[in-house]
Amino acid sequence: MLPVPSPSSSAAAGRYAPSPSGELHVGNLRTAMLAWLFARSTGRNFLLRIEDLDRARAGAEAAQVRDLAAVGLDWDGEVIRQSDRTPVYLEAIAKLQAEGRVYECFCTRAEISDAPRAPHSPPGAYPGTCRNLPEAERERRRRERPGALRLRADVDEYTVHDVLHGDYTGAVDDLVLLRNDGVPPYNLAVVVDDAAQGIDQVVRGDDLLSSTPRQAYLASLLGLPPVEYVHVPLVLGTTGKRLAKRDGAVTLGALADAGIPVPEATAMILDSLGLPGTLPEALEVFDPRKLPREPWIFTPPVR
Ligand SMILES: [Zn+2]
Questions:
Q1: Are 133 and 140 spatial neighbours (Cβ–Cβ below 8 Å)?
Q2: Would you say residue 226 lies in a domain?
């Protein structure tokens, strides 16, 4: 008899990729649960990646992994950390460099925001100041401060497809590939890692939708396979801003202290998605078409 292919033998995968900057809150956990539901309901592996290039706080990773397991998530294979992968990011940059797609930028933040720009260029877009600096000028600037590396983009917008948002066209500028402190930025690390891990489904908060065209464009230049995007609504605090620690009891630990144990907190998050009490139960009835499209306003319990 031929072996039946199991989900775990397929390379396709979804993922959750938190930054270990503190404890996960209800909004982070809800996005993680959605990523798991999308992956598992489509027979994909589910991977966990720690995005610790920037904002790592001691002990946060262990606490996040513990809380993800506590709400019922499981994942395949080893957890990878971006801080272990710098050579892989540099290799991707070298590939673009070899194609003449990289240039040094010496601008400060203030110089970028004060620079004259085209009337319709999107806010925050790099105005191209250093794109064509003469070599002598580059040498002079290098002595003043280390340069960042930027992509010489040959488009100014790019279209991606999102399961919940449909086609989405957004701005692409000469994005940073390596910061001047030597750290690769999110836009580069995320596309390199998703491809390296065989991830073909990216479920994350819809605050990242606007940067997705940049990432998809960069992935196309690196010859990496396109992924399916699902940008899900965020959880907001009662002030209407993205949920944060200042909103009160928003982590599993704080909720438990306020008299809401983990199973109840898990059920509460699933209920906000119109889903039943535990992740396995939710998986049985999960239908992306029925997901709420609006943010969830979370009112933390008062102890
Ligand atoms: Zn510059």
A1: no
A2: no
CATH number at residue 139: 3.90.800.10
Q: Does residue 93 sit in the same domain as residue 184?
A: yes
**Residue 245, marked binder:** yes
Instruction: State the sign of the Cα–Cα–Cα–Cα dihedral 264, 23, 46, 206.
Output: positive
14 φ, ψ (degrees, to nearest 5): -105, 180
Those residues whose beta carbon sits under 5 angstroms from the ion ligand 1 are 105, 107, 129-130
Cβ 46 vs Cβ 233: under 8 Å: no
Annotated ligand binding at 126? The verdict is yes
Query: How close is the Cα of 150 to the center of ligand 1, in Å?
Result: 8
Spatial distance between the Cα atoms of 128 and 150, rounded to a whole number of angstroms:
10
**Digitized pLDDT (tens) for each residue of the chain, 303 residues in all:** 344 334 444 569 999 999 999 999 999 999 999 999 999 999 999 999 999 998 788 899 999 999 999 999 999 999 999 999 999 999 999 999 999 999 999 998 888 888 877 666 667 789 899 999 999 999 999 999 899 999 999 999 999 999 999 999 999 999 999 999 999 999 999 999 999 999 999 999 999 999 999 999 999 999 999 999 999 999 999 889 999 888 899 999 999 999 999 999 999 999 999 999 999 999 999 999 999 999 999 998 876
Kindly give the distance from the C-alpha atom of residue 206 to the centroid of ligand 1, in angstroms, as a whole number.
29
Q: Please indicate if the annotation marks 186 as binding a ligand.
A: yes
Q: Specify if 171 maps to a domain.
A: yes
Full domain range(s) for residue 147: 86-189
Both 118 and 173 in one domain: the answer is yes
130 assigned to a ligand binding site: yes
* 223 located within any domain: no
Full strand arrangement of the beta sheet holding 166-171: 166-171, 157-162, 228-232, 201-205
Residue 52 C-alpha to ligand 1 middle, in angstroms?
26
pTM of the model: 0.92
**104 CA → ligand 1 middle, Å:** 7
